[in-house]
Amino acid sequence: xxxxxxxxxxxxxxxxxxxxxxxxxxxxxxxxxxxxxxxxxxxxxxxxxxxxxxxxxxxxxxxxxxxxxxxxxxxxxxxxxxxxxxxxxxxxxxxxxxxxxxxxxxxxxxxxxxxxxxxxxxxxxxxxxxxxxxxxxxxxxxxxxxxxxxxxxxxxxxxxxxxxxxxxxxxxxxxxxxxxxxxxxxxxxxxxxxxxxxxxxxxxxxxxxxxxxxxxxxxxxxxxxxxxxxxxxxxxxxxxxxxxxxxxxxxxxxxxxxxxxxxxxxxxxxxxxxxxxxxxxxxxxxxxxxxxxxxxxxxxxxxxxxxxxxxxxxxxxxxxxxxxxxxxxxxxxxxxxxxxxxxxxxxxxxxxxxxxxxxxxxxxxxxxxxxxxxxxxxxxxxxxxxxxxxxxxxxxxxxxxxxxxxxxxxxxxxxxxxxxxxxxxxxxxxxxxxxxxxxxxxxxxxxxxxxxxxxxxxxxxxxxxxxxxxxxxxxxxxxxxxxxxxxxxxxxxxxxxxxxxxxxxxxxxxxxxxxxxxxxxxxxxxxxxxxxxxxxxxx
Amino acid sequence: xxxxxxxxxxxxxxxxxxxxxxxxxxxxxxxxxxxxxxxxxxxxxxxxxxxxxxxxxxxxxxxxxxxxxxxxxxxxxxxxxxxxxxxxxxxxxxxxxxxxxxxxxxxxxxxxxxxxxxxxxxxxxxxxxxxxxxxxxxxxxxxxxxxxxxxxxxxxxxxxxxxxxxxxxxxxxxxxxxxxxxxxxxxxxxxxxxxxxxxxxxxxxxxxxxxxxxxxxxxxxxxxxxxxxxxxxxxxxxxxxxxxxxxxxxxxxxxxxxxxxxxxxxxxxxxxxxxxxxxxxxxxxxxxxxxxxxxxxxxxxxxxxxxxxxxxxxxxxxxxxxxxxxxxxxxxxxxxxxxxxxxxxxxxxxxxxxxxxxxxxxxxxxxxxxxxxxxxxxxxxxxxxxxxxxxxxxxxxxxxxxxxxxxxxxxxxxxxxx
Amino acid sequence: xxxxxxxxxxxxxxxxxxxxxxxxxxxxxxxxxxxxxxxxxxxxxxxxxxxxxxxxxxxxxxxxxxxxxxxxxxxxxxxxxxxxxxxxxxxxxxxxxxxxxxxxxxxxxxxxxxxxxxxxxxxxxxxxxxxxxxxxxxxxxxxxxxxxxxxxxxxxxxxxxxxxxxxxxxxxxxxxxxxxxxxxxxxxxxxxxxxxxxxxxxxxxxxxxxxxxxxxxxxxxxxxxxxxxxxxxxxxxxxxxxxxxxxxxxxxxxxxxxxxxxxxxxxxxxxxxxxxxxxxxxxxxxxxxxxxxxxxxxxxxxxxxxxxxxxxxxxxxxxxxxxxxxxxxxxxxxxxxxxxxxxxxxxxxxxxxxxxxxxxxxxxxxxxxxxxxxxxxxxxxxxxxxxxxxxxxxxxxxxxxxxxxxxxxxxxxxxxx
Lengths: 539, 418, 417
What we know:
The complex is a heterotrimer.
Chain A: E1 2-13, H1 17-28, E2 33-36, E3 52-53, H2 57-60, H3 64-80, E4 85-86, E5 90-94, H4 101-112, E6 118-120, H5 122-128, E7 138-142, E8 145-147, H6 149-162, E9 166-168, E10 171-179, E11 182-190, E12 196-207, H7 213-219, E13 226-236, E14 244-247, E15 256-260, E16 263-267, E17 271-272, H8 285-298, E18 307-319, E19 329-330, E20 333-337, H9 338-342, E21 347-352, H10 358-373, H11 402-411, H12 423-426, E22 428-430, E23 435-436, H13 437-446, H14 452-459, H15 470-483, H16 486-504, H17 510-526
Helix pairs in contact in A: 1-6, 1-10, 15-16, 16-17
Chain B: H1 21-25, H2 38-51, H3 68-72, H4 79-90, H5 97-103, H6 105-114, H7 116-124, H8 126-136, H9 152-164, E1 169-174, H10 176-182, H11 184-196, E2 199-203, H12 212-216, H13 220-239, E3 245-247, H14 250-262, E4 275-277, H15 278-287, E5 301-305, H16 309-314, H17 317-325, E6 330-334, H18 353-370, E7 374-376, H19 380-390, E8 394-395, H20 397-404, H21 407-413
Parallel strand pairs in B: 1-2, 1-3, 3-4, 5-6, 5-7, 7-8
Helix pairs in contact in B: 2-4, 6-10, 9-11, 10-11, 11-20, 11-21, 15-17, 18-19
Chain C: E1 2-8, H1 12-23, E2 28-32, E3 44-45, H2 60-65, H3 81-94, E4 99-100, E5 107-110, E6 116-119, E7 121-123, H4 129-133, E8 139-145, H5 153-162, E9 166-172, H6 175-181, H7 189-195, H8 198-211, E10 219-223, H9 232-241, E11 244-248, H10 255-270, E12 274-277, E13 281-287, E14 290-296, E15 304-311, E16 322-323, E17 328-329, E18 337-338, E19 361-362, E20 369-372, E21 375-382, H11 392-395, H12 398-416
Parallel strand pairs in C: 1-2, 1-15, 2-12, 8-9, 8-10, 10-11, 15-21
Antiparallel strand pairs in C: 3-7, 4-7, 5-6, 13-14, 14-15, 16-17, 18-19, 20-21
């Protein structure tokens, strides 16, 4: 067994937004940090949600506390993560079948929570957002937006690293090093290097692993009761809307349509699922049906818009400590110092919450860590300091090519580091999402990229209309230059195509089935990858 | 499921499977590397423009609007329309004086016809060409089509209009700017041929330029105004008993049939089917057995037919080809479908001259190899380009019919006593 | 307009049927709704590359006989398959599509990603494992093009090294290529091929010759980025470079595939065939059990009439078949289709496995007449990828099904007339 030389102040388990945010906060406060992720960053719920920058309005009526947290974090994220945020604004629309009286309750609740909410004329709403259901009888304008969780998480990782944090992906924590009632480190399995076992030690271990936190707590001998709630979503081929559209009623299925980057996303469903299923979420025909049926009520054109894929994530809902039955489930943040709660030293769990409140969760977790380490003087600066890429954009260099424009959108000020001086650098690998060779090279060098799926999450490679056709082998060939392992990348292409197919399959009809046939033919018959043995899912 | 039966997106951009076939047929991409190509400029770029109009690229102006991408697309994506619409929607700045001049074919034509000899002489003079090249950026290699001293409309009113009422059936002729100002002989040929077949010819009450040049040069308001006038005139002509509105220019015909709706967003659905090309109209008369054609015994010609881009897109190629083939003395070679490179006013612009000629070179070489007596084509700008670049005469199929028909015998065969 | 036979779809199946009929002097119209899947073909045609257990096939004819009854091959007399296949190869040859390979034994083509795969016929300029094995020494040089993203020399080298070849990896560049590289999206095989004419082709040859000067390879493998629609370009290049040249296919739109398309289409037109290019058939007129006319999106109410019709509209990619969320339909004639009725049985989670939905298609009788409400349409035949039971993807039989069914139907039409 290998042991890492360095002793850390803190090991953060989980490469979602919360884990990355916690690693960043800890690093900014001067702690020696190791961030550990089982697969790739954003592999869990962070990468499988709406990408909605909640104004908090959705919770205003039912959960004032969450609503207030949301609007506060919303304003903070607009400052610190400008490059990850799309300032679209949002509507809460009332349809003829809804109770218009609810609108006033809604507006009052929003205002009480500190959320600007203004009723506007339905005609104006139709004019501002032509895709909205023309039958609407009411509309309220709120400061919703979109947020790109992949970029957000990566920016946190980058800043953590910039401030000295070490980062390991594809390292799964399998057990803890413990002495008596103290956790002193973790045992990890390196998924990439033949499952090698590695030890790392730290004064505090933070469990920031979303729904998997339940299991990681169990391994530490403490109990955090969580309830996996599956949410399914559909991605449409282009931005049908430019303003977020919500239903003005009590939260229900498929009542939010979010424009994000080049697509828009309808969601979600919400169903309790067994723990055993959280590693293989599949979208059912019933879910597709309800998402469409309800989505069409928000924007009728969804009935005839190409759907690119379906996906599902798992919300980590937490039962309150005083209600072990789980009936009282909170969407709020849960930060547990297990020394106080369970008498287990050196172990902190941060869970519950939402993507929107990841920063606040990180702040709470880091506060707890600092308190345990006696470093209370280290103050949190994450509410003020911009994330890498989101610093004030200098306006003197306007990108010319489509690839350059798209990469500025993705990487913000960091796009300046993308090689673009030669034609070969600027050549597009992914033409749907305008990803250049330079951007791929940049991602490989700087953004923890080892396989095609990592590249997708860092750059949007293969996330466009064709869900990865010519771009996959082009990107694989660039990856291959770095490790000279052809067979690995051939297998990688096959895995990547199947990862895309998994999302396409629930909506494989019309143009999407034509696309899938084309892809299967190109990579199967023409390129010959069908003779390679099927491999496990790329993660 | 009662929805998701079909996918409806603007110009079908989301039906694109990213197969890249469009880029194989684009005449511009291998020649002008500033042009991002039909797939990038069209369906790929459209998704980004929906997100942010800044993704519009002024380099889309290098698109010829030839629509060969649309003909090639296996998924019915209207790629050319996407690019053209993007130019009309997002391009910044007003069209230049040069572009406006080139596009205002009506105004320019009216002015020029008034003083045709002077204009023709001066457009051909070196100093004038030099000034045009330098200040207006109209390429000095270009020969402007000569302006006729008498407009076709004037000739028609003076010499033809009166006798048309003698015929029992009628069409309205959309002559277009070119026939009106530069080449009335083609219009005269059409009248003669139609009359010989027993069809009287009328003109529209008000005919404006079809608008193709204005659309290409982003004069949307002006193009729309002209289009609305034309649509109204066509409606009236049909109501007054014309069985069709016939053009001799494939581009005019295509613009009115397709671009009015696809690009300008006008509703032309009630008249679209009645707007047709002369060769299509005549072919249908023949097929229905309505008319008989008697050709001259002594007509022997080797003709190379060039399919204009808009003809190909309109889908009417077979009408002209079949008609020419049916002429007994004609040895017809159908040239490979390649763009001639001029694309209306595109080739007149100094910045496009080289691209324009490079695109056409394949066609020019093929024509030279075929060694025809002349080239036949349905588009006037193809005619200018081919004549300038190969020195070989180019004729409209209607002119060929006019030459090849024994008009008197044809009139007799159609039992005309008029 | 009236013709003897109208063929809907101008892919390999449609154009082959058209040629077969036109060669017999028939008056044929071919309706093409956009370019066909042939454009992505890498220069090799499969008759049957894999059996139903996805095992590679060495002798296709024998394996064809063992296909399930639903497969189009089973509508042929077993004894006639060889003859049909040879007829197909002859048809291609007459159109100028010169190939190596035969029906008795598959050879191995080399895919754009460097895998070896059984094939029936391969364009003679395109590399095969067998051709390389004929070289005087097992040593080749693979010449990549700087900045060209759709050719994978290292992947091909990895495959050839496994077969015992020594591979030199070279990269060629010159000002013509540099100019093309200024475009961020258009450095594609087809665009390179389009500038490779005249002097530029000579300069390219010289660049290849110079870059390979020190290599002792017995042959060079170049990406297929040189025009193949005539023989001139490849011969010219061979002369300049001064040693054996093979072309390896690239990903995406492929020059060998375009060459096949171009040569076949040119042959059809030279036989006097009529092409309706860029027309989509949108409706049809029936008289009892006969098809009378079809209408296209371009010709308004002008009917296209014929004595016989052949539907070669392809599968989902070409929109010959359309899948709605609930069913697989043939959208023009509303012909009967065979498809798993339950959508949940359409797919396999491995895209490269057998996808039952890809096996769906038009139901036909024993003479390939399409069924409509259970009754064969007397004069409408279906051929190629739109046929039910032809899962060309998992069997690598797309070209074979296209050519054999096209020829069978064309011959039947000729015989009946």
